[in-house]
Design a protein that fits this description.
The protein is 45% helix and 23% strand. By secondary structure, the protein is an alpha+beta fold. Strand 13 (230-235) and strand 14 form a beta hairpin. Helix 2 (31-62) runs antiparallel to helix 5 (256-281) and helix 6 packs antiparallel against helix 9.
Length: 453
């Protein structure tokens, strides 16, 4: 049977169009599979939103789970002479600070030479520091210019810094040697250029010596000496940077606003979580639109466990037993409301009791610790959310395999249709050809019969 390269050429029928319609109808089998995949993917995304909100709540609870979380302090300075940085270990107190002397580094210069690039001869320069450390710098003939000596000392990086100054005289170039740090321990106690070579051309100018000195100050009448102008141990948890001599008053007070902010942040994080859950499980009657996780058991379980933890009465020995004792109440719609005035009074007057409620007493867990345990079961690896999302991902993979199998079956069916249509097209073309031939023969016969008459 003759072959036809394009469907419909032989028969004159729109076989290509018919094949496309059949293929479109067959591919409708894929639509519910894709829809189910999209549904599962939407749920994974929704659980991602839920996880993010839960993680934010966990972080807010963590800030309340340690005693240090309620020890925030702030500082105020009056007077000039220093800046203060208050760390986590600082304690409340008032400090009168008198700075009588700032720390200073040591320096001394050599007598001048005429050419800073001219060689002075090989040698060894020996240094001894105020703390007893000593070191030597060897200088070769080729490196023995003033610039070469400077570079060799600086490359040694042993606590001495070298530079060159030009004093404008006939022999203007001087090598200046300075201690890298302030204080008497870092000071240069001695410099020896040796004899011969380098030692014949360089010597110290005693008139240029600037002696090192330590910082001296008093804190509430206590004398303090520091090798540097940054003083870290004079006041617990406070770093002082001395800028000039003078008197300064430092006041360290409890930062009640920061502590209140952490509790407000906890309430806000929980309410944001509730808003997220409401959004994912809501139903709009007007539009008929349902949340992605409406009726989902996992979400209901998460919400129930959290609500139970927050409303449980603590059995610890602390003064407060429940959030309501702090002015934090659970509303009908599931969010928390906070009495900010009541919280402010508690932070100001019962901070220790507030700390015990959230951070715990001795071996007894506080609310923040209990909440972290519950949230950990939800958020940690192999936890509630990890398990449910892993199950959804597995379902998507199975649907993808089903999609590919169905698509392969559809392709096979369409190819079978294509082959059958091609055969039909050839058959009709052959029949048309035979019909045309017979018609021509009958017409010729009729013509002959007519002539004979």
């Amino acid at each position: 049977m003759a072959t036809i390269s394009s469907l419909g050429i032989g028969s004159g029928l729109d076989l290509n169009g018919l094949l496309e319609q059949l293929e479109s109808a067959e591919r409708q089998q894929l639509t519910p599979i894709v829809a189910q995949q999209q549904s599962y993917q939407a749920k994974i995304s929704a659980f991602g939103q839920l996880e993010s909100a839960l993680d934010s709540l966990r972080q807010a609870a963590t800030e309340l789970s340690e005693v240090d979380g309620f020890a925030d302090v702030k500082s105020s300075l009056s007077g000039d002479g220093l800046s203060a940085t208050v760390g986590d270990e600082a304690v409340v107190g008032s400090y009168e600070i008198d700075i009588t002397q700032r720390a200073r580094s040591y320096s001394i210069a050599t007598l001048g030479v005429a050419d800073k690039e001219g060689t002075l001869g090989a040698g060894t320069i020996s240094f001894t520091l105020g703390n007893g450390d000593s070191f030597s710098v060897a200088v070769t003939e080729n490196e023995s210019s003033l610039e070469g000596i400077r570079d060799a000392i600086n490359a040694a990086d042993n606590g001495v810094v070298a530079s060159i100054v030009n004093d404008g005289s006939a022999q203007p170039y001087r090598l200046v040697l300075s201690s890298a740090e302030t204080g008497t321990e870092a000071a240069i106690a001695s410099v020896d250029f040796g004899t011969g070579g380098l030692g014949d051309h360089l010597s110290l100018d005693a008139a240029t010596e600037v002696s090192a000195q330590n910082a001296q100050l008093t804190v509430n009448g206590i004398d303090i000496t520091s090798q540097g102008n940054r003083v870290e141990d004079a006041i617990q948890g406070v770093t002082l940077d001395l800028e000039e001599t003078g008197s300064v008053s430092l006041e360290i007070t409890r930062d009640t606003s920061a502590i209140e902010g952490k509790i407000k942040g906890f309430v806000s994080a929980y309410n944001n979580l509730q808003n997220t859950i409401s959004s994912l499980t809501s139903y709009d009657q007007e539009s008929g639109t349902a949340g992605v996780l409406i009726g989902n058991y996992t979400v209901q379980s998460v919400e129930s466990r959290l609500r139970s933890t927050l409303t449980d009465v603590l059995t610890s020995s602390g003064a407060f037993k429940s959030l309501s004792d702090l002015g934090i109440t659970l509303e009908v719609e599931g969010t928390l409301s906070l009495d900010e005035d009541a919280l402010g009074d508690l932070v100001a007057e019962q901070l220790d009791d507030l700390t015990d409620f959230f951070a715990g007493v001795a071996d007894e867990d506080g609310l923040a610790d209990r909440l972290d345990t519950v949230l950990g079961a939800m958020l940690d690896d192999d936890g509630t959310l990890d398990s449910v999302t892993s199950g959804l991902e597995s379902s998507i993979e199975m649907l993808q395999e089903r999609y590919e199998d169905t698509e392969a079956r559809i392709d096979s069916t369409i190819e079978r249709y294509r082959t059958q249509f091609a055969e039909l097209d050839s058959l009709i073309a052959q029949m048309n050809s035979t019909s045309t031939y017979l018609t021509q023969q009958f017409e010729a016969l009729s013509a002959q019969l007519g002539q004979s008459d």
